[in-house]
Amino acid sequence: MANSALTELCESVVGNIDLLFDYFGIEPVVYMDRLSFCCPIHESDNQESASIFITGHTKIGNWKCWTSACEEEVLEDGKPRGNSLFGLVRGLLSVKLEKPVSFRDSIVFLQQLY
Fold first, then answer.
1. How far apart are the C-alpha atoms of 112 and 58, rounded to whole Å?
2. Can you say whether the dihedral through the CA atoms of 6, 59, 24, 97 is positive or negative?
3. 69-96 burial: b if 16+ Cβ within 10 Å, else e
4. pLDDT per position as a tens digit, 32-68
5. Residues 6+ positions from 97 with CB-CB distance below 8 Å
6. Main-chain phi, psi angles of 64, to 5 degrees
7. Does residue 27 carry a pLDDT above 80?
8. Could you tell me the pTM of the whole model?
C-alpha cells in the first residue's frame, strides 16, 4: 500500500475515531489536540496513560503510551510496534486476539472497519 493511501486511511480513521474506540471499548478523555485513555496494551487503569493526537500536520494519528512506552516495545519481528495509528491498532488487536498481529493485519482490519 502506497504512503498516500496509508495517509488517507489514517485521516479517515482519525476523522471517525469513535468507531475504532467503540470497537475496542476505549473511553477517551477529549482534549483539543488529542484523546487520552487507559492504555489497553499494558492494561493500565490510568485514564491519562496513553494519547492519540487528532490534530497537527506531522503528528495526526500518532499515539504515545506515557507510562510504559508501549509504542517502543520491540516485537517478534525485531522492530518496535511504532507510534503511528497502525502501531496502536496492531497493539490493540494483539491484546484482543491474544496473539501477535502484523502491521499488514492492522491495515486490513482498518480497511474492513472503515
1. 25
2. positive
3. ebbeeebeeeeebbbbbbbbbbbbbbbe
4. 999 999 999 999 999 999 999 998 767 889 999 999 9
5. none
6. -150, 130
7. yes
8. 0.91
Residues linked to residue 71 through DSSP beta bridges, in sequence order = none
The pLDDT value recorded for residue 57 is 66
Q: How far is CA 23 from CA 4, 11, 67, 77, 110, in A?
A: 25, 18, 23, 26, 11
Given CA atoms 109, 58, 12, 34 in this order, what sign does their dihedral have? positive
Cα–Cα distances in Å, from 27 out to 4, 12, 70, 110, 112?
29, 19, 18, 19, 22
Q: Are 39 and 65 in contact (CB under 8 A)?
A: yes
Count of all residues that appear for the chain in the document: 114
C-alpha cell belonging to residue 27: 473511553
